[in-house]
Amino acid sequence: MIRFIVTVFLAISAACVQAAVGVTQVASIEGDKPVTVYYPTTSAETAVQRGPFKLSLAVDAEPARGNGRLIVISHGSGGNAWVHADLARALVDAGFVVALPMHKGDNALDPSQPGPESWRMRPIEVSHAIDAVGRDTRFASLSLDKVGLYGMSAGGHTALTLAGGRWSPALFRDHCAQHIAEDFPACVGLITRLRGDFLDGPKKALAVSAIKHRFDDATPQSHTDPRIQAIVAGVPFAADFDPASLANPAVPLGFVTARHDQWLAPRFHSDRILAACKSCELIADLPDGGHGALLSPLPPPEVLGDIARDLLADPPGFDRRQLADVDRRITAFFTRHLLQ
User: Fold this and answer.
1) How many angstroms separate the CA atoms of 155 and 146, rounded?
2) Handedness of CA 264, 110, 151, 278 (dihedral sign)
3) Domain 2-167+226-338 CATH class label
4) Which residue ranges does the chain devote to CATH 3.40.50.1820?
5) Is the overall model pTM greater than 0.85, yes or no?
6) DSSP string, 20-71
7) How far is C-alpha 281 from the geometric centre of its chain's CA atoms?
8) What is the pLDDT of residues 25-54, one digit of tens each?
9) Mean pLDDT of 189-206
10) Is 89 helix (H, G, I), strand (E, B) or coil?
């Protein structure tokens, strides 16, 4: 216990000295896209524009020594390296280095392969991101034997896979066939929506038919990486997992949920895994949060399509100021499990 307290104190002390956040990219491996890395630095931040976001960062600055640990963030469908910049800052302030891979075929620049096609590749891309950061000499001080992973939405699916969860395209098919009306956005994504009119019936029938045609593989999908020793899943897609595979995860597993999630209804996703996993920790449950609550900064409405805008919008009364506390709780989870 004394050793743990001293380690945390040193990490906090280092973070207090290194108040700035640097950002750079590291070269990818095996055809993956470059990995964006946030890290502690003593250099001054400047205002930068990244897509629609105005951020304060020290671009390509010299890294400063932090706590020696790496956190990987797996973005959701259509995401990028900037929609979790506030969480990355909180983690860097605690001394962590934070890496964000760009998931192929399921990102803001290329949304061509969302769903099970991407879900197969994503965990491997996380492992590749750890390798890519590890071979960059600027981050030679990192110890990669205890890495953390945070994933949101489709990234939460990535997180649950790397926590030891087993899923299959056929389980996705079966869920959508049974619950297409109640979980339509989860099964169909941004292709179309139900509007409460005479077209809803044909839309549901066509969706189930297309899903049955494409996703019939019942082979359990899995991928683990022994370097990953603590995981947080935020509003994850989880309806296609065998809950028993996550009843006793090999590493500490935390959840962040949102009760007003209109994209991934909690009862079909987070809640069913939490019901099976007695050791899992509910880090935060946002009673008035929607699916986009954990995007911080939230993409401005003008860059989103109509369906995405509605599914990601904050419900009336949701106060985004509470996200700073959620980020602190996530950071504390990783500090507790990675710095002992």
Assistant:
1) 19
2) positive
3) alpha beta
4) 2-167+226-338
5) yes
6) EEEEEEE--STTPPPEEEEEEESSPPEEEEETTEEEEEEETPPB---SS-EE
7) 16
8) 998 887 788 999 999 999 999 999 998 999
9) 94
10) helix
